[in-house]
């Protein structure tokens, strides 16, 4: 079971950006379209800096500031 979880996280990491909706479609994780741009960006930065312990840390650790900004704009509340 542990191997399946690790494999699943690895596969998810390959598609994390720009396909954040893979999990954030309202059924698996928080629906990003209901969160403000500022909140999404702040959380992504916290994940990147490992200030918030979460599996998202693996997805955002290699994102540039520009990619974080683009993702926050694309997926946050319009």
How would you sum up this structure in a few lines?
This protein has 78 residues and is mainly α.
List the helices and strands and how they pair.
Blueprint lengths: L1 H13 L22 H12 L7 H5 L4 H11 L3
Helix pairs in contact: 2-4
Key traits:
78 residues, globular, mainly alpha
Low-pLDDT regions: none
Residues in helix, %: 40-55%
Domain count: 1
For this entry, what is the oligomeric state of its chains?
single chain
User: Care to count the β-strands?
Assistant: 0
- Supply the number of helical segments: 4
Q: Quickly give the structural class.
A: mainly alpha
**Overall geometric form:** globular
SSE string: HHHH
Strand percent estimate: under 5%
> Radius of gyration, rounded?
12 Å
How would a crystallographer describe the biggest sheet? Answer: none
**Between the first and last Cα atoms, what is the distance in angstroms?**
39 Å
Q: Residue-averaged pLDDT, rounded?
A: 76
